[in-house]
Design goal:
With 819 residues, the protein is α+β, with helices and mostly antiparallel strands. The protein folds into 5 domains: 131 residues, Jelly Rolls, CATH 2.60.120; 57 residues, Alpha-Beta Plaits (2-Layer Sandwich); 350 residues, Zn peptidases (Aminopeptidase); 86 residues, no CATH class; 115 residues, Jelly Rolls (Sandwich). It has 13 helices and 40 strands. The strands form 10 sheets. The protein has an 8-stranded mixed β-sheet, sandwiched between helices. Strands 1, 2, 4, 7 and 9 form a 5-stranded antiparallel β-sheet that branches. Strands 3-8-5-6 form a 4-stranded antiparallel β-sheet. The radius of gyration is 29 Å and the shape is globular. It starts with 5 loop residues before the first strand and ends in an 18-residue tail after the last strand.
Length: 819
């Protein structure tokens, strides 16, 4: 395999030397044979296959593609093999005839390109093969840059604003974080200098990530070689390739036709790949049966391989359990289950097929996170294919910062090369639009998006200032229940750090369907398979969920909640057989004020969402599981009523003298301080306190830290670049506190710019309630005539009787109350 630090030098369309006619671009098979195309090259003339033999003309990439011919499309697959060894070089096995098999080859390498007709009526498909010549890149001379040591460090961030400051540095910040620190990848000496210059303290967790990556690959090979099977539902012992996922999905559907249906999402990726998923339910093809929907997805982020494995094993769990486990059979019978293991197939295919490098440099494709969008890159980085381009893994958009929920705010980057680049606008990426298409057209009452790593069960909101939704008690209870199985920490997403544009911060606030993120594992993006997949899924040592059920049982808890009418809403009524009921909503929701690269903001963007779902009546009474009609974004916010007055605020005296400039706090304790007391009930009920300090010049910087009586840091803004700081603590316990002021910078060292300040208090914020929203319910006859319409209001856990809506005139529709 060539080094992945490469750049496109040229492209040559290639077919076998003996090709004399354009017709040789067409592959043919008289019948279909449902088998793996990538398992091995088969002899010429084997039923269901066609092949071409050719020799690579370059050191670089082969791109073999299949496209449909005229007539019905069918399902053709594609594989490329090394002729001498029979080893698979590249493959693609999606559900139609839109295939891309891509990998590295050497000049003069003899290859076999094998096309396989898996299913359908299409006897032909169109084959195209490109050879892309690549040259080493890394320095202006074209020679490979010397390797640099990458390390994993834990950065001390004792306050939320420290995390915000860290995110602004542009480093590769992982999802492993807690109240006092965040793990960060430092890819090279430049990153190390950036962190050092920022003043943050850090400790090394893993000193050589490249060596760890190579060792992990070796560990996985040894485990797969010696393990006859695993505790997973599939028994698998190694990470899947993209073509494994594609092939297994359609095999599950082929072998279980009444229970399993494979499907292709509406939009192909930037590189033209299909995104595929599987649906599992009794009478699976009757999508409009009114059952609640549980949607599980993996690999928004390419390098997070366990996310796809857990999603795929969950599909096996449901299918195997339906046949063998009465409890799972009952849950599957009452729900519909959608599983999309790989949301970002372009990025995943690159990461999975890359050499184990692990140094997190530009050309460490194994650690690519984003998709393959090239549109937002500077012109000099916009050439070449995603697998080998001048920007390496840095090109693309982070799909999990591209959803409309609070898009454009803190917790996502405006910089194209950043791993958290948010994209040009909300839903600018096909990957996020694909997820939106499912959530907007189905009643997805429960959604789980899988990531790595940090052993967390995360719920909304992603931004602390948004405040928790009215659903917070039930939302937290479900998260806590799942966390009791995998022994992860259950918390709102903002407790990790602010994120905007994430999956559930759109899906939940727009539809009311429960949405969670699992951050699987505690150490790496794709650790050894036995630990990161087998142990975490099955609840085995060394996973924290060992003996508690692991993620398997957490997923089952989520499914049980999906089946529970108390967790969503239900519409009941009567309708003649064959009539179709539809629920519709159209609304606009603002994004965050949109941060600009220079730090300024522009007004929010108003994003229009349309929710459309349907139920086909079987005759007589029906029950339709739906999400609440009022979306949580407008329903209100959770809070508590005050039990007494807030404490009176007061000014504080600046202590005599001025401490020396100190950029190393707390290692250097030079500072000044004042103390204050917080009263409790019955004297006062403080919903929050705010320690407020101010000075004159924006070039002066006083940092503020607040400690409780035990010496625990409880609040710190540490903003910088302002003329004030405000350290806030919500629901502060009664007691004594100390505020510490650190003289971080002075605009003019000769003239002290000192601070003034005080402490203010506020009452708890009571719950707030917004307007009720309605669904528009319509009924159409089998001939397509509108025969009934009504506005329907439904809250979570409530059942609404819409009566005989199909036999009422649309002109006399009335609003339906709740029973």
């Amino acid at each position: 395999m060539l080094t992945s630090a490469t750049v496109l030098a040229g492209a040559v369309v290639a077919l076998p030397a003996a090709t004399a006619h354009a017709a040789e671009n067409v592959v043919r098979a008289d019948r279909s044979v449902p088998r793996s195309c990538f398992a091995a090259p088969v002899p010429k003339g084997t039923a269901g296959t066609d092949r071409r033999e050719l020799t690579s003309t370059v050191d670089g990439l082969i791109q073999a593609r299949l496209a449909p011919s005229t007539g019905p499309e069918g399902d053709w697959d594609l594989a490329v093999f090394d002729k001498a060894t029979g080893a698979v070089v590249a493959a693609s096995a999606a559900l139609r005839t839109h295939e891309l098999a891509e990998s590295f080859v050497k000049k003069g390498q003899e290859l076999v390109v094998q096309a396989c007709r898996y299913g359908g009526n299409a006897r032909e498909a169109v084959l195209g093969v490109d050879f892309l010549a690549l040259t080493p890149q890394g320095t202006p001379t074209g020679t490979v840059a010397p390797p640099q040591r990458a390390e994993l460090v834990r950065v001390e961030t004792p306050a939320k604003t420290d995390k915000d400051k860290l995110l602004r540095l542009g480093l590769d910040v992982t999802e492993k974080a807690d109240a006092t620190g965040v793990e960060v990848v430092l890819a090279n000496d430049t990153d190390r200098k950036t962190l050092a210059d920022s003043g943050f303290k850090s400790n090394v967790i893993q000193p050589d990530l490249s060596a760890k990556s190579v060792q992990n690959a070796k560990t996985d090979r040894e485990y797969a070689a010696k393990a006859p099977g695993s505790a997973l539902p599939s028994g698998r012992t190694s990470y899947r390739h993209l073509y494994d996922y594609e092939y297994e999905i359609k095999e599950l559907a082929r072998k279980n036709p009444s229970l399993v249906s494979a499907f292709t999402l509406p939009e192909p990726t930037w590189e033209g790949r299909d995104v595929v998923g599987v649906e599992i339910a009794t009478d699976v093809r009757n999508l409009a049966d009114g059952k609640p929907v549980d949607f599980t997805m993996g690999v928004h982020h390419a390098r997070e391989w366990p996310a796809g494995e857990h999603a795929m094993e969950w599909a096996y769990e449901l299918i195997n359990g339906y046949q063998r486990d009465p409890a799972i059979r009952g849950l599957v019978g009452r729900t519909r289950n959608i599983v999309v293991p790989i949301i970002n197939p372009d990025g995943f295919e690159i990461s999975r097929e890359a050499e184990p490098k692990g140094d997190f440099t530009r050309f460490d494709y194994e650690n690519k996170r984003k998709n393959c969008n090239v549109a937002d890159s500077p012109k000099e980085f916009a050439t070449g294919v995603c697998k080998a381009n001048p920007a390496g893994r840095e090109r693309g958009t982070d799909p999990n910062r591209n959803y409309a929920g609070f898009w454009g705010g803190n917790g996502a980057s405006t910089l194209w090369r950043s791993d958290t680049f948010r994209g040009a606008g909300p839903f600018s990426e096909p990957e996020t639009r694909n997820v939106r298409s499912i959530v907007s057209s189905r009643q997805v009452t429960n959604l789980l998006t899988l990531h790595t790593y940090s052993n967390l069960v995360l719920r909304v909101p992603g931004v602390a200032d948004v405040r928790a939704p009215l659903d917070e008690p039930a939302y937290k209870a479900l998260g806590d229940q799942m966390a009791s199985r995998n022994q992860y920490k259950s918390e709102p997403s903002w407790a990790l750090y602010d994120t905007t544009g994430s999956t559930e911060d759109w899906s939940y606030w727009a539809t009311g369907g429960w949405g969670f993120t699992f951050e699987i594992g505690g150490t790496e993006f794709h650790p050894p398979y036995a630990d990161g997949v087998v142990a975490e899924y099955a609840g085995l040592k060394p996973a924290p969920g060992a003996g508690h059920g692991g993620n398997r049982q957490a997923f089952l808890d989520m499914l049980a909640n999906t089946a529970d009418p108390a967790a969503h809403s239900t519409l009941i009524g009567s309708a003649p057989k064959g009539y179709q009921l539809k629920l519709h909503k159209t609304f606009q929701t603002p994004t965050s004020p949109v941060l600009q690269p220079d730090g300024s903001t522009k007004p929010p963007i108003y994003v229009t969402d349309k929710l459309d779902s349907s139920l086909t009546a079987t005759g007589g009474r029906f029950a339709w599981s739906v999400n609440p009609s009022t979306r949580p974004y407008v329903a209100g916010r959770y809070g508590r009523d005050p039990q007494g007055p807030p404490q009176a605020g007061f000014a504080v005296a600046n202590p005599p003298g001025v401490p020396a400039v100190n950029k190393q706090y707390p290692a250097d304790a030079t500072s000044e301080s004042f103390t204050f007391h917080v009263d409790g009930l019955p004297k006062a009920d403080n919903g929050k306190f705010s320690v407020d300090v101010a000075w004159k010049s924006p070039n002066t910087d006083w940092d503020l830290y607040v400690y409780d009586a035990a010496g625990n840091l409880v609040s710190s803004p540490a903003n910088g670049g302002t003329t004030s700081e405000h350290a806030v603590l919500f629901d502060p316990p009664a007691g004594d506190y100390k505020a510490v002021l650190v003289n971080y910078a002075q605009a003019d060292p000769a003239v002290v710019d000192d601070w003034t300040g005080g402490v203010s208090f506020a009452s708890p914020v009571p719950p707030t309630y917004g307007p009720k929203e309605a669904y528009q319910l319509t009924c159409t006859s089998p001939r397509g005539n509108l025969v009934g319409v009504a506005d329907v209001y439904a809250d979570r856990g409530q059942t609404v009787d819409v009566g005989e809506v199909c036999t009422r005139s649309a002109a006399v529709a009335k609003e339906r109350g709740v029973r």
